[in-house]
Design goal:
Oligomer: heterodimer
Number of helices of chain B: 13
Radius of gyration of chain A: 19 Å
Radius of gyration of chain B: 33 Å
Largest sheet of chain B: 6 strands, antiparallel, barrel
Structural class of chain B: alpha+beta
Order of helices and strands of chain A: HEHEEHEHEHEHEHEEEEEH
CATH architecture of chain A: 3-Layer(aba) Sandwich
CATH class of chain A: Alpha Beta
Helix content of chain A: 25-40%
Shape of chain B: extended
CATH superfamily of one domain in chain B: DNA polymerase, Y-family, little finger domain
Shape of chain A: globular
């Protein structure tokens, strides 16, 4: 018995030695979003050189892609940003539009778009891209359930990101949150904007909720407003829902975190 | 023999020697020919296949001369000026080329002449033996000029049977009767005019070749040799202060086929390992692997496109200093693996039609453009969507007639209640593009009234009414054109 325990301990040490990731070069810096509440909850911002996963329902595609692009642009600073998507995504969700990117304050000249034939090719290209330290940030868009993105695949992405220090954002349109090796997992939806005079739609507003975070509490929600001219997130109404999910390691999907539901959303609408 | 469908009837297109001997001629209907010779073996004409085959042969002929061109009428034209000594003489070169082609069951006729037109005619028309080339050309029949059939008949009726007869006449009279092209053809045949050959491949700036005494049966070994050649090409590029933007490795097989493999880079490079990484990437992504067949007997590496590249600093321990790999290298690798059109950059275009205001271009060949001017005033929310649907997607809209804003709309089976909107922003068609000044016609499209709308759940869309009510259309349709962030 004691022998088996000893060998078990040896095996554990061996695995720990195998699993030891090389010391991240720039991995320790944090990316401040500019939103006071969000940054405070994240101890200063999103970690660079990690994978962050953003989930959005299929009908929330505009908001989810918009927020992912804005975060990726913040992470990339002035370096090129690569947006990998599949041709199926481009068919279903439309193609990126330069004037619209420019209007959001994201310079389209620093954007590269990779249109891959399928998810397998996309994930291969994503690992390749994450190994290139000159890249500012990588945005990986996957549509639907994406069964190819399992724990192994996301771990591969996370390792590549840690080694090169490139921040990766996994945009999951219409996918259900499942366990992955991502540093943080978020649910993104559009939020009603603050109207301009004449009841015109105002600046882009997002409802963001933290589903899971590797080190720290989750189950928090915010409303973010992006001001493209200032290049920072403004402070919307500050919503904060704490559910005390601190210790729970992400197992079941939707691990207790709640998306704040607008009052005017009908049940039939949710089912649709 | 080969038949083709001419105006609804199957007619003979080409025949072999036995068929000609049996009295069949090209242009005869298949039914007539079958009536005479029931034992005919008939094949359908395949002009594209023929052309393809000829192009492959032409590429294979690059082993004799860099200037190989396709010739009209199922021929190849090789410019062998200055190439003969490599084969102990021009006649030996021609013999080697015909031997190689005949080994594949082709029947080859060849001629060597001072001008391409003369060689073309001499190879196709039987000429009486002559002491020199000029005399041989002059003894060719007038058909060798390849004028229209009536002209050739008219020349024969006038008693002009050979090119020599024609050359003796004054050119002015000839031009008056048979047109300028007759005189041009005559002069070309006699070598008086000079028409340059249009080679199938333009001659590249840098080329490195390896020929093997014995064919090489292993692709892996061949790739190693290409790596040596890449290092050599890299040295040549460094001497010129250039870097290659395109590289082409051609694997010549001993049975005459050639496999070209091309790679492209977005920044000039001359580092052999970098070049070989791209080649390896390309070879790995080939649909059918590089097949050595009976072996490769020649390899060639060329640099069809080179750009200036500053000399690089040598590191102290020798070799070029390694600088960290840029994004361009990533773009090259991904473009080669996935296809060059799949990695794109957006480029602005000066058009107010939304879907024409940008172009998605291959990133490997276009540098980052500048000058994206945002639409609208600074400080405004985005006036243009993040995602654009091309083509726009039709939606069902409830709106006031004739030009009221939308109240609710149905898109992808979901009903959206519009709570906030801004618009219309009217975008007129490009009337100056209309043919014959017609504004009514569909050729330039209709006026669009765009609305920025937000639904009850905060999702923002860009939708438009297509056409002015009553003026342009009876019942204008509504479309969704984009999604805002």
């Amino acid at each position: 018995m004691s022998e088996s325990i000893k060998s078990l301990a040896a095996l554990k040490r061996h695995i720990a030695a195998l699993d030891r990731t090389p010391a991240p070069t720039v991995g320790c810096t944090r990316l401040a979003t500019g939103h006071a509440g969000l940054d405070a909850a994240l101890d200063g911002g999103l970690l660079r050189g990690r994978v962050h996963e953003l989930f959005g329902a299929a009908e929330e595609e505009g908001a989810a892609a918009g927020l992912a692009l804005i975060l990726a642009r913040l992470a990339a600073d002035d370096a090129p940003l690569l947006w990998l998507r599949t041709t199926a995504s481009a068919r279903a969700g439309g193609s990126p539009y330069g004037p619209g990117l420019a209007a959001l304050g994201l310079n389209p000249a620093r954007l590269l778009i990779g249109l891959m034939a399928d998810d397998a090719m996309l994930l291969r290209a994503a690992v390749e891209g994450l190994r290139c330290p000159a890249l500012g940030a990588l945005l990986i868009e996957l549509r639907g359930r994406a069964p190819l993105l399992d724990l192994t695949a996301s771990r591969r992405l996370a390792l590549a990101a840690e080694q090169s220090g490139v921040t990766a954002f996994l945009l999951r349109v219409g996918g259900d949150p499942v366990p992955s090796a991502a540093e943080t997992r978020w649910q993104v939806a559009a939020a009603p904007s603050d109207p301009l005079p004449g009841n015109a739609p105002g600046h882009s507003a997002f409802a963001l909720s933290l589903l899971r975070r590797r080190a720290g509490p989750d189950g928090l929600a915010w409303r973010l407003i992006w001001d493209g001219e200032k290049g920072a997130f403004g402070d919307g109404r500050h919503e904060r829902h704490e559910h005390g999910q601190d210790g729970q390691q992400g197992g079941a999907p939707l691990s207790g975190a709640l998306v704040p539901l607008p009052a005017d959303r009908s049940a039939a609408d949710r089912a649709a | 023999m080969v038949v083709e469908n001419v105006r609804g009837a199957m007619r003979l297109a080409t025949l072999d020697a036995d068929a000609l001997a049996a009295g069949l001629t090209a242009g005869m209907t298949l039914a007539d020919a079958r009536a005479r010779e029931p034992e005919l073996r008939v094949f359908e004409a395949d002009p594209h296949g023929d052309q393809d085959w000829l192009e492959r042969l032409c590429d294979g002929c690059a082993r004799y001369t860099p200037n190989a061109a396709l010739d009209s009428g199922h021929g190849l034209m090789l410019d062998i000026s200055g190439c003969g000594h490599l084969w102990d003489g021009e006649a030996e070169l021609a013999q080697a080329a015909t031997d190689r082609l005949e080994r594949h069951g082709m029947r080859v006729r060849h001629a060597i002449a001072a001008s391409p037109e003369a060689a073309h005619a001499l190879a196709r028309f039987p000429a009486a033996p002559a002491p020199d080339e000029d005399a041989a050309v002059r003894r060719l029949p007038v058909e060798a000029l390849e004028l229209e059939a009536e002209s050739a008949v008219a020349l024969r009726r006038a008693g002009l049977r050979t090119v020599g007869d024609l050359a003796a006449r004054p050119a002015a009279a000839l031009a008056a009767r048979f047109g300028e092209e007759a005189v041009d053809a005559l002069h070309a045949l006699l070598g008086l005019g000079h028409r340059p050959l249009a080679p199938r491949r333009p001659r590249p700036a840098i080329r490195v070749e390896r020929r093997f005494a014995e064919p090489m049966g292993s692709s892996a070994h061949a790739i190693k040799v290409v790596a040596e050649m890449a290092a050599e090409a890299g040295e040549q590029l460094a001497e010129r202060g250039q870097g290659g933007r395109r590289f082409e490795a051609v694997f010549f097989r001993s049975d005459g086929l050639a496999f070209p493999i091309r790679v492209e880079t977005s920044l000039p490079i001359r580092d052999a390992p970098a070049i070989m990484r791209l080649f390896q990437e390309r070879i790995d992504s080939l649909a059918d692997p590089l097949d050595p067949g009976f072996g490769f007997d020649m390899l060639r590496l060329t640099v069809p496109r080179a750009d200036p590249m500053a000399p690089t600093q040598l590191a102290l321990e020798g070799g070029e200093a390694r600088k960290s790999e840029g994004v361009e290298a990533l773009v090259d690798r991904l473009s080669i693996r996935a296809g060059r059109a799949r990695i794109q950059r957006l480029e602005p275009r000066d058009s107010h039609i939304p879907e024409q205001a940008q172009l998605a271009l291959p990133a490997v060949e276009h540098r980052a453009p500048e000058g994206w001017a945002p639409v609208g005033d600074p400080g405004d929310p985005p006036m243009r969507p993040l995602h654009l649907f091309d083509p726009p997607q039709p939606i069902d809209v409830i709106a006031e007639v004739p030009d009221g804003p939308p109240h609710r709309f149905r898109w992808r089976r979901t009903l959206h209640e519009v709570t906030r909107f801004e618009g219309p922003e009217r975008i007129a068609p490009e009337w100056w593009q209309a043919r014959d000044g017609a504004i009514e016609g569909e050729s330039t499209g209709r006026t669009r009234d765009y609305y920025r709308v937000e639904d009850a759940r905060g999702r923002r869309y860009w939708i438009f009414r297509h056409g002015l009510y009553g003026a342009e259309t009876v019942h204008p349709g509504w479309y969704i054109h984009g999604l805002f962030a």
